[in-house]
Amino acid sequence: MRNPGIHARLLIAVFAIIGCTTFALGYMGMNITHQFVQTRFEERISFLAKYLALNAELGILIDDKPMLQRLAINLLSEKDVMGVTVFDRSDGELASILKETAEPLSVIDVPVLLSRSQEVSPFQWNEDADGNNLPIGRVRIVYSTGGIEQLLINMRSRFIWLSSGIVMLAAVIFYFLSHSLVAPLTKLAQAARDVERGNHDMRVQPGSLPETRELALAFNSMLDSLERSSSALEDVYRKMIHQKNLAEMGKFSMMVAHEVKNPLSIIKSSLDVLKEDMSITADNTMVRYMEDEIQRLNRLIEDFLAFAHPAKPMFRRVEINSLIREIVMRFDLQKAKLPVKISTDLLEEPCHVNADPDLIIRVFDNILKNAFEANGDKGIVNVSISREGETLYIDVEDHGGGVDPENIEKIFEPFFTTRSKGSGLGLAYAVQVLRTHGGAITVKNKGEGGAVFRVTLPIE
Ligand SMILES: Nc1ncnc2c1ncn2[C@@H]1O[C@H](COP(=O)(O)OP(=O)(O)O)[C@@H](O)[C@H]1O
Ligand SMILES: [Mg+2]
């Protein structure tokens, strides 16, 4: 058999407690009332008998039968009195009257004695040898006990109905009370089962009782935190798969890059030999195309390898003004043929950072290249250094169209590019290198057009 739940247990307990209490108290009360009513009834009948005996005294003395008969008739009109008989000293009937009835009957006999006021009467002989007053006759009342018994039966059945009613009422009240206690628990169990089946969005309604309300709120907040951690777990899982795919792709691309790099250098050197053998001049368009494309491919592979297989930084103490000067000089040399200019705004005092200059140079190479691409390979790009406490800022500012606000979050991700010949690796590489240096890179669009890329580095 199933174990009874809280609801059933509470109901059984209340039924038992209230039932026992009501019946025990009622039974005691009933008995007391029963006895009280019974005694009152018997006292009344005995009073009537004594009253009759007192009034019959004279009638017996003077043997006045009609008077005694009237007395008997009078008494017969009393409730429950069914018959009256008056006897003389030798039990001869002086008066008698009896009602017909089917009810159960009882009898009370009371002797008729001479009252003290008659002491000086000529009936002195009515005392025995010890001076006790001897009876001069006897009265008998036959009475019905049917009425009182009916009354007691009525009382008993009323008591039973009343106590049953009280027990039922208490049970009904308690049923709803315990239902209101148990219902939230049942709902909570149902909700837990729903959650187990995977319905993580469901929440329980807080009930009206403070305790169950507290329970429901705690349950809901547990579900919230469960949802948060499961979505975090899903995120991590998704990222892991992404990373795994990326790693697989990375391995494959590394292999391709290495495989392409060697034939490319063979093509390049063969082209040089061919140029010399066939005395092709440097301004031959075909050869220029080939050389440009070989250079572009080479650069792409180098960018990729630098990103996918980052070199371990070789940190040294570097003076930032001279490093920037060197970067700008290299760039000027590369872009000597283009109408571009880099203006610098350096620090007045030397400032040292702990960095790998080769990697930092490559980072700025990427940023400056982007800046000139944005500028349309003309105009000015401004590089300025500033410091704030222990942090160094290097801002590269162009006058191009700025970064599309829609892409501003994505431009640092690997392979994100908006350029037809771009690799999308320049800024991702910068993020990677600066992270190993304890720095960062951010971007802001200027109101008047153009973007400012800010590199942050910790001062040594
Ligand atoms: N100075 C800039 N002005 C506007 N957009 C830029 C600038 N620098 C970078 N971007 C945007 O960021 C993207 C990613 O840059 P990058 O990582 O260097 O890759 P790539 O240059 O190969 O496209 C670019 O395609 C471009 O949309
Ligand atoms: Mg770039």
Write the layout of secondary structure elements.
Blueprint: H1 6-61, H2 65-76, E1 81-88, E2 93-98, E3 105-112, E4 137-144, H3 146-196, H4 210-277, H5 285-308, E5 316-319, H6 320-334, E6 340-345, E7 352-355, H7 357-375, E8 379-388, E9 391-397, H8 426-436, E10 440-445, E11 451-458
Parallel strand pairs: 6-8
Antiparallel strand pairs: 1-2, 1-4, 3-4, 5-7, 8-9, 9-11, 10-11
Helix pairs in contact: 1-2, 1-3, 3-4, 4-5, 6-7, 7-8
Bound molecules: adenosine-5'-diphosphate and magnesium ion.
Magnesium ion (MG) binds at residues 366, 369-370, 422, 426.
Description:
The protein is of the alpha+beta class. It has three domains: 6-166, Beta-Lactamase (2-Layer Sandwich), CATH 3.30.450; 203-309, Helix Hairpins, CATH 1.10.287; 312-458, Histidine kinase-like ATPase, C-terminal domain (Heat Shock Protein 90, 2-Layer Sandwich), CATH 3.30.565. The chain has helices spanning 6-61, 65-76, 146-196, 210-277, 285-308, 320-334, 357-375, 426-436, and strands spanning 81-88, 93-98, 105-112, 137-144, 316-319, 340-345, 352-355, 379-388, 391-397, 440-445, 451-458. It starts with 5 loop residues before the first helix and ends with a strand. Adenosine-5'-diphosphate is lined by residues 366, 370-371, 374, 398, 400, 402-403, 411, 416-419, 422-428, 451.
